[in-house]
Amino acid sequence: MIATPIEAAPEPSLRQTSGALRIWRRLLRQPLGVVGLVLTLGFVFVAVFAPFLAPHSPYYQFPNGLMDNGAPVGISRQFPLGADDLGRDLLSRLIWGTRNTLIVALLANLFATAVGTTFGGLAGYFGGWIDAVLMRVTEILIAVPAVLLAAFLAMVARPSPFTLIVIIGSVNWFYLARIVRAEVLAVKTMEYVEAARASGASHARTLWRHVLAQVWGMVVVYMTLQFSTTTMFTASLSFVGIGIQPPTPDWGNLIAEGSQFLTSVPRLMIVPGIALGLSVLGFNLLGDALRDATERQ
């Protein structure tokens, strides 16, 4: 009997590259997705190159930034967006506020993703009492309003960017844990997972290399969609005074400072509010388009 040659399967890296390329092309075919991508990349560009884009220091109080009656000066060549109530350049504070807000939101999002993926992966893979305990903890935390829980933790902890990252990340992983658990429950019954266990692979290797590897695409989409939520959390906590503390600028405390002059100098509140709204819009549009592109894989 002549053995029929078996065609070799493509390398996993090539399959992953091809899949990523298809997702990218599908994303670019969606007009709203392109808008979201442009907005997101624009804010990322401003955040990364803030030291070079800001025309002035965000902390320096210009003597000519205030008029004789103490009101902030309006738009001029020196101050493209005007000055604030202390004579500081609003454009420079907005640019640095973009950097500070997005860094905290990004790190908080990564923290939440790591915790949610770990909880969901362990619960779905091992099942039994581990699943029961982890999911009961998750359900109890879901029952508490995230904003109230974050505000309570922020009031207890000493305000700092690090504690803000941990607090925001700690209240944003619950739903991801349940989503990852559901995906892992489906993936762990696949034949290649059973084969990996039968060949003597450890639980850690099987979970990481064969189970969670099939879930990362969904996790990335969720992270993109969740980025708008963490950005809003960061700005909201700063707005009420328990987030990033002045004089360090971020969108939340810029809006809070500007709200005191809403009737006299509305741009102090409107300009950072527009920046926050456009960033949330961009993240949501990009996340929706990315989800649609991956669902058609």
Explained architecture:
The model is unreliable at 1-16 (pLDDT under 50). The chain is 69% helix and 0% strand. α1 crosses α13 and α4 (90-126) runs antiparallel to α5. It has 13 helices and no strands. The chain has 297 residues and is mainly α. It has helices spanning 12-28, 31-48, 50-53, 90-126, 128-143, 146-156, 161-170, 174-187, 191-198, 203-211, 216-239, 251-259, 267-295. The chain has a single domain, classed as Orthogonal Bundle (MetI-like fold), CATH 1.10.3720.
What's the short story on this structure?
With 297 residues, this protein is mostly helical. It has one domain: MetI-like (MetI-like fold), CATH 1.10.3720.
Summarize the SSE layout with pairings:
Layout: H1 12-28, H2 31-48, H3 50-53, H4 90-126, H5 128-143, H6 146-156, H7 161-170, H8 174-187, H9 191-198, H10 203-211, H11 216-239, H12 251-259, H13 267-295
Number of domains: 1
At the fourth level of CATH, the homologous superfamily is MetI-like
Rg for CA atoms: 24 Å
In what range is the share of β-strand residues?
Answer: under 5%
Compute the number of helices.
13
SSE order in H/E notation?
Answer: HHHHHHHHHHHHH
Rounded mean pLDDT is 86
Which overall shape is indicated by the principal axes computed on the Cα atoms? elongated
The class by helix and strand makeup works out as mainly alpha
Give start-end ranges of low-pLDDT stretches: 1-16
CATH class: Mainly Alpha
Throw out a few tags for this protein.
single chain, 297 residues, mainly alpha, MetI-like fold, disordered N terminus
